[in-house]
Amino acid sequence: MSKRRVVVTGLGTINPLGNNVADTWNNLINGISGIDYITSFKTDELPVTFAGEVKNFDANEYMGKQHARKLDRSGHLSIYATEEALKDANLDTEQRLGNGVGVVFGTGIGGIGATEQAVRTYDERGASRINPLAITQLMPNSSTGQVAIKFGIEGPSLTITTACAASANAVGEAKNMIQNGIVDMVIAGGTEAGTTAMTIGAFAQIRALSTNNKNPKGACRPFDKDRDGFIMGEGSTVLIMESEESAINRGVNIYGYVAGYGASTDAHHITAPAEGGKGAVDAMKKALFDAELTSDDIDYINAHGTSTLANDKNETAAIKTVFGEKAYDINISSTKSMTGHLLGGGGAFESLVSLLSLKNNIIPPTINLNNPDEECDLNYTPNISIEKDLSTAMSNSFGFGGHNGVLVFKKT
Fold it and tell me: Which of 240, 298, 348, 408 could disulfide-link to 260, CB 3.0 to 4.6 Å?
């Protein structure tokens, strides 16, 4: 029996570049950075003072103060992005979606803001003063549950917490659900609101973050010789995924096919990638096999491209291993150069970018790439987007713990 084809019919996002898909895409292809000095808390005592923050979003105004107070910021963002995606897919946000629809969300650290607040309250005022909503705010599956409640999703639900690969894995597992006939539609995506004083401080302690405080917009420099770490980002992105038959029957727009999914584990080190990107190689090969494509078929790669010394050189090596000499002909870009690293929300955001690149035949740039690293010698589409006929795209996501998730998308 032939596999059911899986398509994307709706997109929604809120991220450092925009609070909707159109603004996000326009800023991406124009090489505009959403990274700036942190405004949501004081950074006087922190070694890093900038991040990719969501802008001009007030949860109290969006959903009402009574509802907003029940959720962590990651939940606010996920509900917003889901509503945008449902509308885009021509689905009624006032009607319960029912048991024929599933939901799969990825997150790296869940409600970390609520966690910090609860600990702070306990230390300063005692256990009796902890917010009674703290547990439901901080649990990693809070966004999945809240989205299901808000939109009446009664089918299977999963929360995936594979660090920075989480929402790539979410899209991949949603594909498997639909392909195997478990449901016809899945709300898939990721959310992260990890830009807090504690997380900034903790990531800085392991020297993972850029400390280029004098130039926030130029700080994220994937594949550049002068790169010095990633930049924290926040946001949520949601894809409405369904069987091709379902989409045709509903008569809705199709952005593209989720054609392939590959996952692997380095089993090497809790933070460092395996030398040469062995786990990344395995995941890319599995995604190509699942898509029934070869390395010659890929036109564009949205790289994990974190702007860290270890990731960028090992991802480059992995791409060379999988694609051979063809690696030099493929356009690659890291859109993290403009958004920062959305952690568990990154894979879903970069899935959106891959689909829009295919639909518009435009490859976004890797900005701030002015002094290429000799070990990173592929075509990373430096600084300026390009127009190119595209049929297929690959999106790479790799996370702490050695988690690797790779997706392949095809144009309709």
Answer: 408
